[in-house]
Give the backbone structure.
Amino acid sequence: MAQLDSIWETLDGKNNYPQIKEELLKRFGVKSLDYIGLKTICDTYSVEHKYARNVYRGVLKEGVEVSEVELAMICDGGYSFFGGHSTILKDRTFVVEIYID
């Protein structure tokens, strides 16, 4: 499980989220995370909108290789979240919980 940093930690330079995003865009050959949607990388998925958080669950397509942080960025369309966590299991199922305001 990956604990997700908040946007404030990113802006303070406490993580490498901007570099992770750039590498992800290059790997998928796109200019924006908008072009890497869950439909592109998942066999199935669902989104629950709860109080102050969004929860994403699903199964990654065979052959799709992303890290837990990259998956959170794809779910969020970036990294402007206020924390959360991301887990990808060996059977390719995942749960990403993103804290929002």
